[in-house]
Amino acid sequence: MRIFVARLAGTPVFDPEGDQIGRVRDVVVAMRPNDPPRVHGLVVEVQPRRRVFLPITRVRNIEADAVIFTGAINLRRFEKHSIESLAIGELLDLDVELGGQRATVLDLAMEQTRTGEWLITKVAVRRGAGRGLRRRRGETLVVDWAEVAGFGAVQADQGAANLLAAFEETRPADLANALRHLPDKRRAEVAAALEDERLADVLEELPERDQIGILSRLDAERAADVLAAMDPDDAADLLQDLPPAQAEALLARMEPREAAPVLRLLNYAENTAGGMMTSAPIVLPPHSTIAEALAEIRRQDITPAVAAQVYVARPPSETPTGKYLGVAHFQRLLREPPSSLVGGAIDNSIDPIRPHLPLPAVTAYLATYNLVAAPVVDELGRLVGAVTVDDVLDHLLPPGWRERDEREPNGEDASESGDGAAREVGGGG
After folding, report:
1. Angle at CA of residue 393, ends 389 and 399, nearest 5°
2. CDD domains given for it (predicted)?
3. Is the pTM of this model over 0.85?
4. Which residues, other chains included, contact 95 with Cβ-Cβ below 8 Å and sequence gap of 6+?
5. What are phi and psi of 396, to 5 degrees?
6. Coil/strand/helix, residue 259
7. Which CATH architecture has domain 283-396?
């Protein structure tokens, strides 16, 4: 059976009892000088975003929509050995040589030998392809591993189109986690290949040091474009972590209308309603119809917390708005005729909060009234933003929480814990 490794990315992994324990994120191979690479196993991401190693000898079956293993899986954090490579993360998009011509690696295929060993036997390449706009030209071939040369070379610009294709359907948080486990050079190549909006979504899911590292390797114009594509509150948080001179330079390169909401957020202390809020909630005038409000809620770029309610205000409808009138919850909107006006569905029992309200008070407010979001109104009665429950969680969680997958549940680094500390899941085989 021949399996192309890029197609394994994101495949659910099940234990012998049929319970899903995670998803495949990569394939670990050992490079050998004169022989096809040997497959050591799979990198599996289990909750909470921890990458562990599943030996290929434990894999019982690989199907189009499932990987089933036998025995148990060790939950110790995955550490790549010096002789190993990540087939998806490091080998796709490499420039290699085929028959004296330049080619780009599109995918790798692994097969099981008669002795039960798994090897990388085939390479899918595009020969004669160019970079950038010309990358789709050329001849696509699947050839034996022995016919291809150049896998051991260090390349200045590897590209990332095929790696990104393998992660095309993944959520930004999952792609962010994949980036964190790539070498710095490869991480920069992937970031450079992402579209501004996708990179902005991914940056929002990364720890601060990784955000800064990626942004600092982009040219200033591109970095400003990516910041503009981020949610204003996330962009403001990132700018506060940059050296002041760099932050000011990036703000200066942003379009004034894109920089304005970020600058407003920077005026508030970090752990206040103003410092946490999003400045782009769903705002409609009272004469809008229920149908128009539901169309706004259905937008794919709106998070569930932001889509929980529509904020009603006098024009202008961008923050800071005209006079704030109230909120219309999506459940109420669903019960109203589509032709009715949003102004008739306002819930006046929800009092807005002020931008300088501290984090503990904001948390207590949301908990007391069982809310997932709260309007933030300034002293002039204008809506300036909304605080959502995910904004609050980001500030309540301890620093570095996005990196917690690198530690054992008790806080001990997995790489330093003894063999007896390693936990396993899954039934017997």
Report:
1. 160
2. CBS_pair_Mg_transporter (cd04606)
3. no
4. 102, 103, 104, 150, 153, 155, 158, 159
5. -85, -30
6. helix
7. Roll (3.10)
The contacts of residue 11 (CB under 8 Å, 6+ apart) are: 23, 24, 65, 66, 67
Q: Compute the chain's Rg from CA coordinates.
A: 25
Provide the residue-wise pLDDT of the chain in tens; the chain has 429 residues: 899 999 999 999 999 899 999 999 999 999 888 889 999 999 999 987 789 999 999 999 999 899 999 988 888 889 888 788 999 998 999 999 998 899 999 999 999 999 889 999 999 999 875 554 444 567 899 999 999 998 875 555 667 777 888 888 788 988 898 888 888 888 888 898 899 999 999 999 998 889 999 998 899 999 999 999 999 989 998 999 899 999 999 999 999 989 999 999 999 998 999 999 999 999 999 999 999 999 999 998 888 999 999 999 999 999 999 999 999 999 999 999 999 999 999 998 889 999 999 999 999 999 999 999 999 999 999 999 999 998 899 888 876 666 655 444 444 443 333 333 333 444 433
For residue 219, give the amino acid letter: D
CA 127, CA 184: separation in Å to the nearest integer?
Answer: 27
Alpha carbon distance 318, 28 (integer Å): 49
CA angle 66, 68, 71 (to 5 degrees): 160
Amino acid residing at 266: L
1-153: CATH architecture: Roll (2.30)
Query: Domain 162-267 - what CATH class?
Result: mainly alpha
The CB density around residue 348, as the number of other CB atoms within 10 Å, is 8
